[in-house]
Amino acid sequence: MATKAFQKIYTKITQITKATCSLKAAGIGYDELASVDGKLAQVVRITGDEVTLQVFSGTEGIPTNAEVVFMGKAPTLKVGDQLAGRFFNAYGNPIDGGPIPEGKEIEIGGPSVNPVRREQPSELIATGIAGIDLNNTLVTGQKIPFFADPDQPFNQVMAMVALRAESDKIILGGMGMTNDDYLFFKNTFSNAGALDRIVSFINTTEDPSVERLLIPDMALTAAEYFAVEKNEKVLVLLTDMTNYADALAIVSNRMDQIPSKDSMPGSIYSDLAKIYEKAVQFPDGGSITIIAVTTLSGGDITHAVPDNTGYITEGQLYLRKDSDVGKVIVDPFRSLSRLKQLVIGKKTREDHPQVMNAAVRLYADAANAKTKLENGFDLTDYDNRTLSFAKDYSEKLLAIDVNLNTTEMLDVAWNLFRGYFTPQEVNIKQEFVDKYWKEK
Amino acid sequence: MATKGIVKGIVSNLVTLEVDGPVSQNEICYISVGGVKLMSEVIKVIGQNAYVQVFESTRGMRVGDEAEFEGHMLEVTLAPGMLSRNYDGLQNDLDKMTGVFLKRGEYTYPLDTEKDWAFKPLAKAGDRVKAGSWLGEVDENFQPHKIMVPFVFEGTYTVKSIVEEGKYKITDKMAVLTNEKGEDIEVNMIQKWPVKKAITCYKEKPRPYKLLETGVRTIDTLNPIVEGGTGFIPGPFGTGKTVLQHAISKQAEADIVIIAACGERANEVVEIFAEFPHLVDPHTGRKLMERTIIIANTSNMPVAAREASVYTAMTISEYYRSMGLKVLMMADSTSRWAQALREMSNRLEELPGPDAFPMDLSAIIANFYARAGYVELDNGASGSVTFIGTVSPAGGNLKEPVTENTKKVARCFYALEQERADRKRYPAVNPIDSYSKYLEYPEFQKYISKHISSTWIDKVNEVKTRMLRGKEISEQINILGDDGVPVEYHVTFWKSELIDFVILQQDAFDNIDSVTSLERQEFMLDKVVNICHTEFKFETFTEVMDYFKNIINVFKQMNYSEYKSENFNGFNGQLEVLLNERKEK
Fold first, then answer.
1. What residue numbers bound the domain in which B37 lies?
2. Which candidate from A113, A258, A283 shows the least CB-CB separation from B101?
3. Of the residues B414, B449, B484, which one is the last residue of a structural domain?
4. pLDDT in tens, B474-512
5. Which of A189, A206, B294, B396 is the Cys-Cys partner for B236 at CB 3.0 to 4.6 Å?
6. pLDDT tens-digit profile of A384-400?
7. A9-70 CATH
8. A 400-439 → B contacts, CB under 8 A
9. Domains A9-70 and A76-107+140-313 share a fold
10. Which CB contacts under 8 angstroms, 24+ apart, belong to A6-12?
11. Using a CB-CB distance cutoff of 8 angstroms, which residues of chain A are in contact with residue B483?
12. Any CB–CB contact under 8 A between A104 and chain B?
């Protein structure tokens, strides 16, 4: 990093830990960036004339007489149309060999949107996947994560959703992503000919873990540029937020903070909320929608990361392998889109809410029947019918390889109801039964 | 001269100031950073060092930046014109702020000083008054907004003069009061009050006993809340806390509703902004927004102001209660507030209590809930603040400090349950674990006998017992199998399912089903209890299931129909036919 004229250079570090170093300095602003021995660092504590810096790439090899230069500003990103189609690292520097893009320099992690200036999200995002569109409809301005075990194909599903959703820009924020996954996204997007509407900020497993703390703010600063200045519909993909939280825990630990549940910092809720709440529908038509991934350990959603995420996001999507049909499905029980009420039955056909609920209820009855079967009890005729229904429902609607529009999905559901049940068993408002329960 | 301070240290939003004069705990100061002033509150003092929490981002703050102390604690400004407004946690009017993004250091006045109010005097020259006495009233969105002797006034006063009926602005001189020393003091319509202190200008705080109708059956019928009561709704995410809270705030029979959106999703507040101006209060027929004040400190807004937001909301609630109004305050969620306390306690390097929460968490929660209540005023009128808070237990585990400490003080407990939510049985309030202590109050029982019916409470208790019995049987069936228990067991089980489907489950998104009047609740409860008392004849358990599913289906159609409408009566007729088919002769 080039130093400017008249910049003061400090050369006396008084304390070094694994992630931080401290020195005596004056006139330093909180959150300000610095370069320590050429490595990027940020002010995290000021006590009198002692300044503590968090060195993003770790303090390995930093000598006590290293050159420290303060830059007088918080981390920034140069935003502009030239961002499109480019790949950057956590500092916003290109990693694709291209030139440094020109643009307006903006501090990342900027202020929040005034809640009264937000618009109520009301535009449906169609993905063609019935497990999402039928049961857990997504809306622009929403924030929703996939809760998935590391071995599940969440990145594939996310890439598919991103490409099918009609967004103007897709911003990919990769945190602790394997190089293979990075190449997967790159290839998928370029094969689909969508590269020119994609901006990526990538921190791979090869990069220092603390650096990934910058990724979401970088991605969302770029997203805000396109959504606010250009009134574009922006979809932000953040994978994997568990890696982000782990980096937070490392830093808070090095700062001697008292950990709360699962060794996470006490501020984990606010830290995650600050990112997810950037999802917004602006009055002028621009929007930021966030689809994230939170990997679970052994499916445990009571762990602090998924638990706090669940309280922040507007629902969550679970993937599960259905052994009956041998396909990955979107789990209808635990998945939820909180904003679906804003569009279903309004932007989609009137019977959508009731059909959705009835199908899930019958699927739950099938799960009960399955338990009965496993416990060696006799099944009733109704039990057997729910089991057959569940199989078809899983195959024809829940599986992630389905690609239908919502009206087709509703018709498929009515077909299944009619095939296995009587109207009384399905328990839907009479006026819809009269209208859609047609004989074969 | 005001005390000044100099920034000595910064860790996130905890700043150490070296001060040159006296400061008090919780005093407000403003720190100048790059031309903007950031509001802060003193939370600890050691020697010449005052530790303050800054209500905004401290980015760019430097050692040596200057601070000025205000000489008072965090206050709210109280006067006519607060209804329908959207405030942040520090009572800044969000609608007056410029731009799409919140700007650091932008503070806006919470009231309108230009508006004319039609004032009617209630006191006259010569009257003896004290803090909280009504001097007059103005019409604020059809509510009689009382202009009161400021709560900070100590002792008794004599009204020297009071303005005549007419139009006045809130800053106009309304009355002159003479204190015991003979000094004259002018008052206008505005008064200020520190949010951390309870407003106690009332004569008595008796046990509450009047039912507060919410239109939510699982609350009104099963576990009622009362005017001036306290309740809390814990639940894992995705179990419908917010939907239930919104339903209560839309439908409750209150004069004023104050919603503190504390550390929750911004889109949920946007939903209120979008819907309340159009939705109609089912009790008065006016727009919901007219009776509502929203205090929004969403999860991305400054953490320190989150704590302030619940106190701001409570103080405004108490202010309206002193006018003899029925106030309902909702806070979503008190866990976020507790977490804000935890973050600060952590930065102060205090020794942590359970789950790293501060040791005095239980006292803080207890004190806050104690501010709710039903009060009798000196002039014989009564008012109430009913408080319902949600709790977001970590991992859905109710054995965590916020839930446990809240359970000690709140009288109603509405436990949202993951299993019910998974089965889409909404509202997912567990009928067995939840309770309302008010059902046991003799005052409340007397009130219900007089206003609903003398058999109501017995029926409610019977329904609760049946739900418990139903659950036991369903567990037995799971172990022994459908054939392993007598057919009568199935009948008992399905009677509890009938109660569940018809009374407890309610479609919050259906225009008709979402709100049920007390009269209708009584009608349905009678009907369901009657069926529970009916002996039926069945040969096999599948007959039982099919039969009850039929009944439930007709009942559901009834719930979706306008009360006593043609459709409703038609379904009621169908039901009678079904019942007569199987009745044991």
1. 4-73
2. A113
3. B449
4. 999 988 888 889 999 999 999 999 999 999 999 998 889
5. B396
6. 999 999 999 999 999 99
7. 2.40.30.20
8. 424-425, 427, 429-430
9. no
10. A7/A69, A7/A70, A8/A69, A8/A70, A9/A67, A9/A68, A9/A69, A10/A67, A10/A68, A10/A69, A10/A70, A11/A65, A11/A66, A11/A67, A11/A68, A12/A64, A12/A65
11. 377-378
12. no
